[in-house]
Amino acid sequence: CGVIGIYSPDCDADIASLSYLALYALQHRGQQSAGICVSGEDGFESQRGLGLVTDVFEKEDLAEMSGNLALGHVRYSTTGSEKMINAQPLLTSSIKGDLALALNGNIINHSELRSNLEERGAIFHSDLDTEVIAHLTAHSFSDDPVEALVESLHKLKGAFSLVAMTENRLVAARDSRGFRPLILGKREDTYILASETCAFDILEAEKLREIEPGELIVIDGSGIQSRFYREQCQSSFCSFEFIYFARPDSIIGGQNVRLARKKMGWNLSQEAEIDGDIVVPVPSSGISAGLGFSEESGLPYKQGILQNKYIGRSFVMPTENIRDLQVRAKLNPISSIINDSRVILIDDSIVRGTTSRQIIKMLRSAGAREVHMGVSSPAVAYPCYYGMDTSRRQQLIAAEKSREEIREHIGADSLTYLSRKGLLAAINAADRDYCTACFDGEYPLAR
Ligand code: 5GP
Ligand code: SF4
Ligand code: MG
């Protein structure tokens, strides 16, 4: 998911439009639903809906939502249900006042917390982890909504980057290991929180700093207050953000994502023992690593596969059969480039194996003599419990099959994955610690 929060010192007629633009920049983080909530003179006003940012919001209505605080969310479901009721921000009301919440992450103990709350009479309206936070906050003894929220954060286990707002305060918090990103920026005297820096670029805002793991900040008329509501743990930032999830123009921990991906390609080229004529990336996720591979190997980089830009991420389709066809609708090889060549095909990851199997089939029909698959991440063999959509282990081809079996399944002449070491070197692992659990099963947090 992607989240944003905006605080403007004065009532700003453009706040909903600023939120819209920021969410537009974060669209790659979730395409299932989108929502904006503004706190203005008449309380909270919101627009939410299923689908893309450009489909959900009515521009005229946005123009009428003025206020000085806003939250926004784009949703990528990790639990599967794409109902309207699951669109965020989540709006709640209690004797403590109004509270809106938007979350990126996954609360591991959410079923347990939910059962406890239900036993105490709480009635849930959605499947959202976020709603657990809302009920915990409402049940707290503290009268102050922000203190009540902090109290509820202590009960959560898992990965969360959270933005929240009361009538006049904007709040941001990260779990104590900082799995998911959350960054603070500024545009004139307006503060902006966002999952990635690409949202600041679109608003001509400057990046101030990242919210730290275990940190909570409150922004209101008296400025920014920061505190560590939890003692800081060793950081476990998601390495998959660098590999696939984040936008290439974003900067994470001082590193440009595109450059990190190129380095993954360099390292893959150094590790791989593959001979070929051309390096062809799978668009668009394999492009940066493909460039890196080509630079390091000295083999020519060719855009031998065309991408239909009007098709969304193919991962989200429900059945294998439709996913297969969707890959063909999205990607098409260019025979004049591919014909009679030994192709080194580069993609960022293999999850189910659908994309690579289809593409390799198409490359062979287009006349490729050999297809060698290079993957700029290690094999994804373990499910993610921290907010990425790989939680059902049987979907992961590397959970069941050996490298040789995967090579056979996708129909490649050879298959090389980047080593864990090569990955960590590409993202300067010395500077901070990363989660690599989906590759090695070393979970930083027990389930
Ligand atoms: P596969 O076809 O093997 O199931 O998936 C691999 C492709 O999906 C890669 O091209 C990669 O860019 C993309 N991908 C990897 N992880 C994710 C994810 O968590 N969500 C989505 N939407 N796509 C992913
Ligand atoms: Fe990221 Fe993988 Fe860790 Fe999940 S398990 S947080 S996808 S590195
Ligand atoms: Mg891809």
Automatic annotation (TrEMBL):
List of residues binding Mg(2+): S285, D347, D348
GO terms for MF: 4 iron, 4 sulfur cluster binding; amidophosphoribosyltransferase activity; magnesium ion binding
InterPro entries found in the cross-reference section: GATase_2_dom, Ntn_hydrolases_N, PRTase-like, PRTase_dom, PurF, PurF_N
Catalyzed reactions: 5-phospho-beta-D-ribosylamine + L-glutamate + diphosphate = 5-phospho-alpha-D-ribose 1-diphosphate + L-glutamine + H2O
Binding note for cofactor: Binds 1 Mg(2+) ion per subunit. Binds 1 [4Fe-4S] cluster per subunit.
Cofactor field: Mg(2+); [4Fe-4S] cluster
EC number of this enzyme: 2.4.2.14
Protein name: Amidophosphoribosyltransferase
